[in-house]
Amino acid sequence: ILQNHLKEQPEIGIIYYDDEAGIKGGVYRFISGRLKKVERHPEALVLDQNIRINCEEILGIQGEIFETDF
Questions:
Q1: pTM reported for the whole predicted model
Q2: How many Cα atoms sit within 13 Å of 65 on the Cβ side?
């Protein structure tokens, strides 16, 4: 779905695990932004302002592109 909408640079929200937060055990964070790129090796999503989230750290993704009308 993300690849199909990449040209539109959709607004998405990502919940991800951040183990480098300086907190023992890490924390879950939420960030939102426009999707700029889907990297293959290593797999990651790049948002506007060059924010890069590794796919293995992602717990969930939300956005209008995931909503469908039945």
A1: 0.86
A2: 17
Q: Say how far apart CA 28 and CA 66 lie, in whole Å.
A: 22
pLDDT digits (tens, 9 = 90+) for 13-60: 999 999 876 778 889 999 999 999 999 999 999 999 999 999 999 999
- 1 vs 10: CA distance, rounded Å: 11
Tokens standing for 26? 């890490």
The pair phi, psi for residue 26, each rounded to 5°, is 80, 180
Burial class (CB in 10 A: 0-12, 13-18, 19+), 9: middle
